# Entry
Amino acid sequence: MLKTNEKQLVMQSVIGEITSPKFRSPYRVSHEGQAMTLPGTGGITYNMRVGDPAFGWVADHVEPGVSMSNREGKEVNCPENAGLNTLACVGNEAVLVSGAAKGARGFVTGKHGGIEHVLVDFDWKVLEQLVIGDKIQIKSFGLGLAITDLPEIRVFNIDPGLFHKIGARLNSKRVLEVPVACSIPAELMGSGLGSASVASGDYDITTADRETLRRLGIDKLRFGDIVALENTDNCYGRCFRKGSVSIGVVVHSDCILAGHGPGVTTILSSKAGRIAPVVDKRANIANYLGVRKDLFGGKK
# Structure
């Protein structure tokens, strides 16, 4: 097992509520020039969960499972919501603390920038009991996680328990081998590029060039898939850097807007390219956490 500093990390509570879907305009214009009205961010999505396809839905930026935020400051960028979005990590335990399903447990599947939502997965039966406004408390744990023997690799947005379950290992060349469902060329990364930090939010795989998506197998990605981002440096923001490698988790659906597509929340980055992706079609957080047995048959 890789040595980390997890015993020195702080576990804190963060809280928010299930958000309502929002529309700023009835139409969005696609990268083909079509004005379309489609489901988007927010709410409870009853027929999408981690492990399901990220492509093929009649939708734009839809978030699987439950979308939550903290609106104590009444604004998307209020300090309370920034705290939730920065401290919550993929794989953290999430517990309903109000409503008909009070006490039910799920886990964080990702973070969506711009709208500043934290995304949470619950069992199908739990989803049916939820209402918008139900409160969810998260045991945030993972901010500041580091691999002690590999300071050249930065770690973000992931619960230490899930990090170990992924099974990344150090090879004889002291390069970290990480299982991934797919590798994404840097030229396909779009919205969110240039952000000053990856400690929250995501950035999108652009999807206007469908032939490239088919050729690389990107159109088969699922929510929760772990992917490699080639020639991308996410250590201190999101940028192109030849030879760098970043690893992330697919968090929301495909989109119709130019420069957009399935979002990726970063979990690892190496400016020096000390990460080697290893293709494994079961590289999905639902598999490692033992949910969606209908897709993965339980824990690997």
User: Anything to note?
Assistant: The CA atoms of residues 81 and 237 lie 20 Å apart.
